[in-house]
Amino acid sequence: MKTIKLFKFAIAHLLLAQIINPCFASDKNQPLSAFEQAMLHNERGEWLEAETLLSYQLSQNPMQHRVRLELALTQMQLGKFDVAKEHLLSLKQVTELPENVRFNIDIMLNEINAKSQLAEVEPSKSQWGLIGTLATGYDDNVRFSFGDYFLDDDPYLDSFYFVLPDGKEYFISQKGYLYSLDGEIVMPEELGIDISPFLEKPNSMFVESAAIIKYSYLGEQVNWKNNLLIRNIDNADFSDYDKLLFKLDSELAWPLASDKEVALQFEQRNQFRGGEPQITSSALTLGYRLFSKSSEWYMYGQYMDRSFKTIEVQFGDFSYTNYGFDNKSWAAGVEWNKLFYNNQLLAKVQFELKSNDASDGLNYLGAILKTALVYQLDDKWSVAGYVNFFQQDYSKSDLIEAYGLDENSELATIDKSLRIGSKVDYQINQQFSVFVSADWGERSSDIYWGVQSNTVRSKLGFNFEF
């Protein structure tokens, strides 16, 4: 309202000097008049108090032009543009009004008309958005970080094998020996095979690009939100692990009251590795959200149907074939988000229980715990940290006996993963930001031949949003 304040100063003093009906004058030794009290209220931003005094004065004497002017300016501060416009139009009818004063009142009327038109235009119920990311990074163990079943629904690609000329297959143990499916165990040098390239962790630079296309419709009875994620990860030295992901989320939410809603979400996901289809999945989630002043609760139940395709991964002379299977899972979970410290700190927690039924017999009961903290240092800088933990228990699996595991041994059926990460963002402007991130992950699996691995990744990139 800086423009209004400047006009207020100029017009008020011109009116004082030139309009026939002079405005109030007061002796400093006398008590403040009602008009002077109204001016004090205006200086303090107490618009309602000023409006009350000025309205009463004008009702007593409609010819007090200065009072009418101050009342119009006060009502503009209150957003009462229609009544303020009436007062200004009334002032324009004063024949003795100087042309420069009339000109300034016209400017104020134009400002009122512009604001009134904006108020009459309803905001669009449909909104589009685009978020893009381009980053480069380093991975100290690309085989394991991009084969993390828990984080990206990847089969755990670790059991590579070597095929002899006679067609016999030998799988590679983490301890450095070879074994066949018929139980034969040999050392690599006995067969003249060098497996050192496999045992060494393949490091790799990678480039990650992603785009999220957003569309939302905010209606009176239902809200419809859609997000399409397209993400591609290219590895410089291990091209078989290049990944392309398409993921669509579509949610309908019905408000029950100002602080609660029910939501139905559909998810479709297609993932490719090395250009070949790897995973197709669809999910349906029914949820309930409860809002408060600074927090949100979300309780949900989910059904997911996934299909893993048969794929072969090559690494030098070694290869691995992951045979396809289908699985269905049911999950129930709760999410909690809350703002702290004058809305500068956001805490997020998610806990989920899952039951999985797989066509290959590897059924499990699992649990997921995700926590994250995001702290807004100022308008430019923010930092985030997160911890994700996953655990799956295969004790009820149909293949426990086939794997030679003891079904009474809890340790022999546990598959778990832990990942810890952090991120720093710098907001250049409303559209662009740059970030640096790093994470560490570890996996321990008894069900997959007792494999263990860890990864460290770092990433530098920028985001743009429109």
UniProtKB/TrEMBL annotation:
Residues 1-25 form the signal peptide. It comes from the Bacteria. The keyword Signal applies. The keyword Signal applies. Keywords: Signal. This is Uncharacterized protein.
